[in-house]
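To whoever picks this up:

The parser on our side crashed when reading a file containing two proteins. I've narrowed it down to the boundary between the first structure block and the second sequence. Both blocks are reproduced below exactly, byte for byte. First block:
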Amino acid sequence: MPAVTMSPPQAPPGSPPRRRVLPWAVIALWIVVVAVAVPFVGRLADVQRDENVDYLPESADSTQVVRVQDELPGGEGTELVVVYHRDGGLTEADRALAEERAAGVAEEYPLITEGAPEVIPSGDGATAMVPFVIGALAGDEEVSAAVTDVRERVAADLPAGLTVEVGGAGALQHDAEQVFESVDTTLMLVTVAIVAVLLIVTYRSPVLWLLPLLSVGVAAVTSLACVYALVQVFDLTVTTMSRSVMTVLLFGAGTDYALLLVARYREELRRHELPSAAMARALRGCAPALLASAGTVAAGLVCLLAADLNSSSGLGPVGAVGVLLALAVMLTLLPALLVVCGRRVFWPLIPAFGGEGRGRSVFARLGTSVSRRPVAILTGGVVLMGALALGTLNLPGTLRNADSFVDTPESVAAMDRLADAYPDRATQPLTVLARTDHAAEVVAAAAATPGVAAAEAGRAGNGWTEIDVYATDRPESDAEFATIEALRERLDRVAGAEALVGGASAQQLDLADTNARDRTLVIPLVLVLVFLVLAALLRALVAPAILLAAVAASWGAALGIGGLVFGPLLGLAGTDPSVVLLTFVFCVALGVDYGIFLVHRMREENLAGLDTRQAALAALRTTGGVIASAGVVLAATFAVLASLPVVNLVQIGFVVAVGVLLDTFLVRTYVVTAAAWLLGRRVWWPGALSRRAPSNSRTR
């Protein structure tokens, strides 16, 4: 595989000016690219979409409900519910205040239902709810403004002891947007800080760490602009989750590539006098592994295009763009910067021409321990990973939309209070749409469905009638999901009604079902595609199978650790439906990276004359330190997600970070090396290396 080179190796001191100008030309080119990209970076936030319906495919019932609602009089309504509560019971004055402020909201906003909203007291008299639907709000900004205004109106000058909260789908959307607005900036700042600290610790140089960080920053700016262009051309769904994952993936993978390149460049500076020659040799040595690594990650992410869920399919190209641009920058801009700065950039640990590397490393000692007890180490590693994977049995159930945030927002607190105060009737209606000439039949069929408390016909238009259906169970509970499925099955039997069941709970059910279908399709596709990439790179079948099995095991173990942590330690009420699929793609694609770095170096050592067993130990000794540093950096960047206030990002960040650490320090160091030691040259079967006897021309 050809590599990008800065100049021919061992160029004489009087090399032509063109060769000395080349690094500066590369730097100038990237300056131009960044200048073009910067104006488009800020626009990406304007096209991000974070509502459940944006995640779902067009074929989902709940998606079609929203589309039809847009055509009804008043458009898609913004559902709100004001919740009043007083310990010991509401007073007459409290109820009068609730009615007065409900009338004020009706005067200010065009409600879909006529008249002032009804004040509905709870059975114990301590709570009252005022549900209503505002129509004719155009866009998220108007919805947020309306929610903020309603909250200010109902909370003004409350008598002592009376509390009020505003919930409902519109309030939840507003609260979610407030959380998401803080995510991008926080994530970027924390990620940059962590990567900077880790690079300083790794290089122990006051200057060198700046070059990889600057290069990753260039890749980040360019990636955001490219993703914005993809949205405009292909109408991709970009969510806060996909943008956040792209950020940590780009910084983590880009820094990993920089660490590997700089480590190889440092080696070559001891063998070549000119930095340009050392860089040319370093690129020839590590570019194939970097290309295969980025190609594997990109291929795994592109497999997400096969997913029906818009958020997952959109994440595929978004993540792939980030990884490929990180690779492009690390193979062009970073080498140019290093060559321009020369050896002095490594100060105070400047590699001297003709000097020797460090002495016996900790990874050399680890390799020796593997060679002494390979069977015990391999068996122990497999048993440990299997035991940890059993923790998946303890994963909490499906995450409710109301539990999607680490800190409870007002909208969620309101809905929880309603669920306790009105146990016999759901306070969040399901939305059924049916053809108007069959609406009466649909209302009757819905009301007769087990688990339904009431069904009421509402507004109509364009041949459709909207029907509010109230379940008897809490919103997004397993019992309510069963009611939704029963309702859909029964209404499908009403001939000609074309009934659709939607609403917030139905959207959550459709998300879970779509994620389940996506897992059965995407996971096998990722395994096959990554295996083919590895087989092409290593020219073997056994080694790719070992690497793939090892990273899949580390993912299972990491997910199992998540099962032991999410509920018992972090108090998370559920597992986001997307976590299994997305963490699998990232753990496998990123984990294979480190296997590629190790096994590709092992193949180099094998071709240079060492037998396979000694080549495995030599590869571990030469790549162990840099891969360990890369693993820590990647894990730390994904761990940043676990500090954010959104539960699905916390869970994805935790599982991927733990999976990377397991793969770096257990799977690659011990399990893969022990397997290679036991199999010997059979690890390269059926390639030529499996039949080639070692020349014994080199020793280590």
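<<boundary where parser fails>>
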Amino acid sequence: MMRLDNALQWSGSVAIRVEGEQTPPVKHALRMLLRDFESVLGEKPTVVEKRDRHVELVIRYADAEETNLQRAEAYGFRFPAEGGGSDMRILGCDELGLVYGMLEFSRRYLGIQPFWYWADQTIARRESVEIDRSPYDSSASKVRFRGWFVNDEVSLIGWKEPYPPSREVWEPVFEALLRCGGNMVIPGTDLPRHGVHYEVAEEMGLWVTHHHAEPLGAEMFLRAYPGKQASYQQHPELFEALWEEAIQEQKDRKVVWVLSFRGQGDQPFWEQDPSFDTPEKRGGMIGRVVRRQYDMIRRSVAEPICSVALYGEIAELYKGGYIDLPEDIIKVWADNGYGKMVSRRHGNLNLRVPALPASSDHGKHGIYYHVTFHDLQASNHLTLFPGPASFVKDELESAFAAGADDYLLVNSGNIRPHVYMLNAVRELWSAGRMDADRHLERFVASYYGNGREELAELHRSFADAAIAYGPNADDWAGDEYYHHPARKIIGHWLTGKGAAPDARLIWGAGDVPFPEQVKAFEVRLKAGIEAWGDWLARCDAAIAKLDEADARRARDQLRFHGALHKSGSEGFYYLCRAYDAYREERYPQAFVLASQSAWAYRESLATLRDAEHGKWERFYLADWLTNVERTLENVDTVRRYLRLHGDSPDFFLWYKEYLMPVAEKYIYLENTHRNPLSDDELAELLKVHFEGLERQ
């Protein structure tokens, strides 16, 4: 260890002492810090217990006289004069303060970024680290309760063999959240109750909260009581027994209690109990249930933190004045899944009712926000949020200005595809504001060694390439746009529903005859192919200039997303064209177009597989939501169906008609042709044939 005039310089095995109780969260953070030191300096620090030895770094709780740090989660850095047992101290008001202090030290002085694991940051080995002797006190975060809902987490489920996911999966998730300054989590969706997800979250110091469809974190009624009608009106004692069990199980933990009443399977409860057929009845029941849950918690928990999810139909009933809520609970408003603070689309119904508190709506408010979404329509699940970071900034800053800053829960999905926007939200929930361009520059500089200007431009222009599928500013197509509507079109087509509109497509193509719905998608997809092709060409040119590590990272964090969009656009576009050719009874041409659709969707699958390298092996294996493989299977069914229209039963007729040399066509013997071409082989040859005719 050396002391410079105004800095410390540490090398080798740094000596660290932790004073005070080492709770599980502090132990986890210390483990991370020791690992980070070893990654950078090549030697693991020595943890010293005796106080009579001088150490480089002391980690301890702040004393009462350190008034700047007497605030929940506060931390600071101090540099005592010569002597005093250490060169530097990390002080924390409480256990999360110590956790944040250690992780901020790691970011600031060791260069370990919040998403080092998920973005495959290159951690350079150094001879020494330099510590500026500037005292530092953390600022209070803009949002009191801030965290992630690890939702639709199929990649995390399919990535490693054990189910439900093990510590090996959850610890990197929660570490990244803590490094982002988060303090709250819903660890997964409807996972088996014997899983370790809640246990690990608690060990690492996070507040746990609940899915709005699982109030109080209780077991689903129909799982506990299969065969009974899920009606609180009929079985209040059974519902309350589940709630009481959940309260007793969690009463001594850090919990942000979610009070709510939705139906089983995350839908309105009146879909299972149709006697609630008016807003008054529905709102009255929700209000009574929430009040009952609130009273039950207060019997067992002193000063509980409670919230109510104003999601979907509950928000509409609340704004209509049909739900009465306790005054001291946090009312959580939700965006529409596409980042806009309005009510979400239900099928084809898109009221876009503003989803923020009115100025007269006093009390505590927060928001539930999506940077990834799964809606079986047009959302982004595998790919980056398709809108610009400036849009997210404006929406969240407006929500804070409206008073919704007590709580921010972000749907984080599978983490790895969404690190850029999650990092933007990190800055917003910490500071309450963000300069989108400066944030982007810092983000790119944190993970890339060169080519930063071009990489920043690619992030910035990503939203410009997204297909605008509707009239609203947030009507951006994510990856599900190329798959769920495509499979609906195939189902409508092959089940013989004819020209009648497909009601499931009205949201994206209008209430018009089915052929016109297909054409509406085709027109948008053609523009998408061009836009994504241009973006992808610029991306490839930028990647070609990078070193190996940066190039791999850029392929995973940028090119991956554009490639899924481009191949998805092409696959869906050629499917639409195949339907047009089919309607015109041009069956061989339709077969070729359906084959081009299949080839494009195969490119999407290849993109997923290419991103599964090293520790990411199998990461996209459980792509069950966008489900590229299922789309490909459906398209393959289409072209098999089309080949029945003229090439059956011998599956040689199109070859004979279009491809066989004239000299052979009329003299060949059928018993010499027993091996028909495969679908791919035939489609490749027919494609060349028809393209040749077009050029003539």
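After patching the parser it read the second block fine. The CA atoms of residues 264 and 535 lie 43 Å apart. The mean pLDDT is 94.
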